[in-house]
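Morning!

This is the sequence you dropped in the shared folder:
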Amino acid sequence: MTRDDLPRIPLLINGEFVQSRTTEWRDVINPATQQRLARVPMATPEEVEAAIAAAREAFKTWRKTPIGQRARIFLKYQQLIRDNIKSLAATLTAEQGKTLADAEGDVFRGLEVVEHAAGIGLLQMGERAHNVAGGVDTYTLLQPLGVCAGITPFNFPAMIPLWMFPMAIACGNTFVLKPSEQDPMVTMRLVELALEAGIPKGVLNVVHGGEPVVNALCDHADIKAVSFVGSTRVGTLVHDRATRAGKRVQCMMGAKNHAIVLPDAHKDQTLNALAGAAFGAAGQRCMAVSVAVLVGAARDWLPDLVEKARGLSVGAGDSATTDVGPLISCAARDRVEALIARGVEEGATLALDGRLPPLSGQLKEGNFVGPTIFSGVKPGMTIYDQEIFGPVLCVAEAATLDEAIALINANPNGNGTALFTQSGAAARRFEDEIDVGQVGINVPIPVPVPMFSFTGSRASKLGDLGPYGRQVVLFYTQTKTVTARWFDDASTGGVNTTISLK
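The structure's back. Tokens below.
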């Protein structure tokens, strides 16, 4: 298929899918084969302005929509997603590369948030205190902010958009979404289903683009809140720029997630968990385990871990036998391979080299790196200090649990961590003393279910309220406190010049 024959990804403005008038387009590439799948526009400033204007106008009526009516839209939306989960996963795998099973998981974890949005009636309740003074009641209202924006990454093109716009819209806001330009097709299909579920025109809008579009969303006076998931570099820029413009901002950013293994852990279950969490999705998860800290006698488990990783199959995500798919782009592959070479240069031991995995046919053109393991890794090495975002596991050693906890707490990131043990006392000490926002006990990727909130911390997060759960309702609403007194008769009891309520 020639470039001119490729499908063109539309924008969504005021309830209509429209073709961009831009002169700048980028190809959407299947990372397993380099096949061009579609073309995505870099939206013009006028198109971004039109999307925001549509959201601003729609907010006037959407904010007054009864809460039950909003909830029913998301009840229908979750069923539409459920009915289409196989086709959504197939699209996701084609453009992003992860296995079909992992792609279904991507969609499902977003679906859980949509289900949570359908319960907005309970989530958006305020508080009330009766008779706080003579005849005086005080109560709070959680009211929508206005137009909100979301900027989402390539690695979860279904889940993370579904973290954002359903909760924002359920709270009574309108939304402008900017998906990753690298894999926007599954996101756009989810947007189509959202309209089918009954989201009115202008309530959800989509623009595509790079840095100029991101900057426009951060700067625009009509946007009241920005939610971002992506790299630390970009997230820091988004947070600083949008905050200066007076917006609420939440940025979930980079990580270096450690898993501590104590020698009393269940060995086979632990090795399976480490391999899955390190190499699943080709390591392209902000919650991937990228450092295993083997404590005491668990240091002897390294050969077994290497053999477990060596047994994983590398290939296209649409193959039922594939465990590890491709990286998102040629540039991502080149970066990961360069970091592997740097690790060797800096003295780490390459226990398993995943570069140039043996593949045939079209897959030779794909962005593949197989499972890779370094041992003898220490702080100060580039492979330890940087987020590799590939299928590379660094193995460090510690003599005791306390030494391992100190290692993790010295790292600037705080997205996720895990401990593998059968000791309740060790687990309790770990969860109490570790300075990381999300903790797993024998759970390698402790992303909470939607009743709770995503709570990464330190350098992994900017902004004090996380995505989904109760925290995101507070993020997407303004608390208004009302103090009211109703008199039984016309008597005022005289002039009160004090601040007290009597």
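Headline: The radius of gyration is 25 Å.

More detail when I'm at my desk.
O.
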